[in-house]
Amino acid sequence: MSLSIANLTRRFDQTEVLRGIDLDIRQGELVALLGPSGSGKTTLLRIIAGLDWPDAGSLTVGGQDWLRKTAQERRTGFVFQHYALFPHMKVRDNIAFGLTVLPRRDRPSSPEIAEKVRELLHFLQIDTLADRYPTELSGGQRQRVALGRALAISPQLLLLDEPFGALDAQVRRDLRRWLRGVHEASQTTTIFVTHDQEEAFELADRVVVMGAGRIEQIGHPDEIYDHPASDFVARFVGLTVELPVTMRQGRAEAPGLDLAALPRRAMADGPATLFLRPSDIAVQPDPAGPFHVTDVASTGALLRITLQGPGDCRLEAEVPRRTLDRLELGQTVSLRPEAGRLFPGQQSPRTAAAPTPISAFKEQRL
Ligand SMILES: Nc1ncnc2c1ncn2[C@@H]1O[C@H](COP(=O)(O)OP(=O)(O)OP(=O)(O)O)[C@@H](O)[C@H]1O
């Protein structure tokens, strides 16, 4: 089903938790709601499910006004982070549950339910778990069963709230791939809440970035990663270095920085802020360079270098270890940002957080 939300607001007491949400989702899309804790993701999902109600705005699914429907009438499949499967029921009965409690006129016969469960077990690659109880399953297996239970009722929408949030990193990665495959085969319109950028970018057709009850940006993962629409999104997708610059005829200038690699921007002359990923800064040893190295730490493949420059300018760059064979504390370097986003105006100067030094590594004098 396609979904359309317009000007949706929700407040709890005096706090506006959703402030005018507009969102259209196409039939068969997999959309991630991505944002920091408290940005309103779960509230939005609960309103779509019919577990909460907005103060204003509209919610239309398949052309029907869903705010006039109860949660049951909406027929959504919902999977939570901690989905309480019924502990006294085997996996096959947990999956069948939603069908067995349908009103008599909609309820399939017992053989039809058994067949549907068999198909789902096979489709979700959990046939071997059918006769186990939930306590006999790993966390990842439980979430597969939870998804089976949500899909059993042939939901019009599938809503997933941090479904892999409690699982360890490797299981999460496996389940992501599995879910992507399940989605491609089932084509159920799916909305997925996460605060994990990697998860959202890997899974979703489109990502909706939320901050403080508003949608900051909607787009394909690459578009959001390469062209964040606001300083909020830029910080959220890892452009954590912020440098004050001056715009002159579409070019950014800053003392001691070679900004020639940045494309010209149609921006008014005046103060602006350049947002960079630490990995977008080329570091070149240079006896006359305006920056000097104050710390070097290794993250394995990368060197994280803290640099002090003209004025009070301090920033962090990350470079592959192999690109710099010698780098000493106190050494002077020049910097050449190779990509970045410019936004008008200057925020209060921010400095990059100091990395945790790895003393032993520093002593090797890289
Ligand atoms: N029933 C409620 N009563 C009062 N405030 C609430 C209620 N539900 C949510 N809130 C508040 O609304 C804001 C948004 O909460 P919500 O759970 O939607 O955010 P979220 O983006 O899903 O966060 P998280 O990632 O931590 O789950 C929070 O400040 C939360 O405290």
UniProtKB/TrEMBL annotation:
One Gene Ontology cellular component annotation held by this UniProt entry: ATP-binding cassette (ABC) transporter complex
Cytoplasm keyword on record: no
State the Gene Ontology terms under molecular function. ATP binding; ATP hydrolysis activity; transmembrane transporter activity
Keyword ATP-binding among record annotations:
yes
Which part of the chain is the ABC transporter domain?
3-237
Give GO BP annotations, semicolon-separated. Answer: quaternary ammonium group transport
Designated name of the protein: Sulfate transport system ATP-binding protein
The record lists the organism as: Paracoccus alcaliphilus
